[in-house]
Every structure is written in structure tokens, then in C-alpha cells.
Design goal:
single chain; mainly alpha; 6 helices; 50% helix; binds iron/sulfur cluster
């Protein structure tokens, strides 16, 4: 599957919500809702699990739809935060504390863009 990297560095193409939406699979939606409800300690329903990825304008999972990093990246018209002149800003550093893999992905993109 083609890589879809969110502004913040999350890998949308590996995300449970994205995969359940692509497959239009309610069993997968239920499993993701259950896992995320436990993980994030909030009530997420299977019907909330619909997302076509951070870079799309179609359907977004609520949390990502209201994400400040996504909003900022869109305003700045960058491909993702790695191509922003302010990388990595404080907002992003705060997020990286809970998502170290996102930082690795964006650091890699940043490094390869300099070559
Ligand atoms: S934008 Fe959608 S696919 Fe990307 S991380 Fe968020 S929920 Fe997952
Ligand atoms: S200012 Fe920060 S959040 Fe906004 S696009 Fe640049 S790196 Fe991303």
C-alpha cells in the first residue's frame, strides 16, 4: 500500500481506522473502537471509526479532524511538518513525547530531503 504520512508523522496507511475504512469492515471497526477506547480512556464507538487519512478532505476520524498540527500544516501548505521551516516546533515536540515513531518518520523525511 502507498505510504500516507500525516502532517504530524503518523503513518495513516498503517492506522486501524484507515484500514477498516478502506476495507469497509465493521468487524475491524469494532476491534479498533475497543482498542482505542481502552488505550485513550474515552468512549469510541465503531461508527466513529471512519477515516480516509490526514491528507484527505473526505472523511476524518474526529480527533484528527480537530488536530491543531494538521490545521497548522494545512495553513502553511506543507506536505508534512518535516518540510516546515519551523520543524520541529513546540507543538510538535509535545506530540512526539507520546508518538516517538512519528518523530523518526519525519526526521527521516527531513534528512532525505537535504540529500
Ligand atoms: S488521520 Fe485518520 S488514518 Fe491518519 S492517523 Fe488519524 S485516524 Fe488514522
Ligand atoms: S509550525 Fe509546527 S505544526 Fe505547524 S506545520 Fe510547522 S512543524 Fe508543523
Amino acid at each position: 500500500m502507498k505510504e500516507i504520512i500525516a502532517y504530524c508523522g503518523l503513518a495513516c496507511h498503517e492506522c486501524g481506522a484507515f484500514l477498516a475504512t478502506q476495507a469497509d469492515d465493521d468487524k475491524k471497526r469494532r476491534a479498533v473502537a475497543e482498542a482505542w477506547s481502552k488505550q485513550f480512556k474515552i468512549d469510541i464507538k465503531p461508527e466513529d471509526i471512519n477515516c480516509t487519512g490526514c491528507r484527505s478532505n473526505e472523511t476524518l476520524f474526529h480527533h484528527c479532524a480537530v488536530c491543531e498540527i494538521r490545521k497548522c500544516g494545512r495553513q502553511k501548505k506543507v506536505d508534512n511538518c518535516a518540510s516546515c521551516s519551523e520543524y520541529a516546533c513546540d507543538k510538535l515536540k509535545e506530540f512526539f513525547r507520546v508518538a516517538p515513531d512519528a518523530r523518526k518518520r519525519l526526521d527521516k523525511i527531513k534528512t532525505s530531503s537535504k540529500k
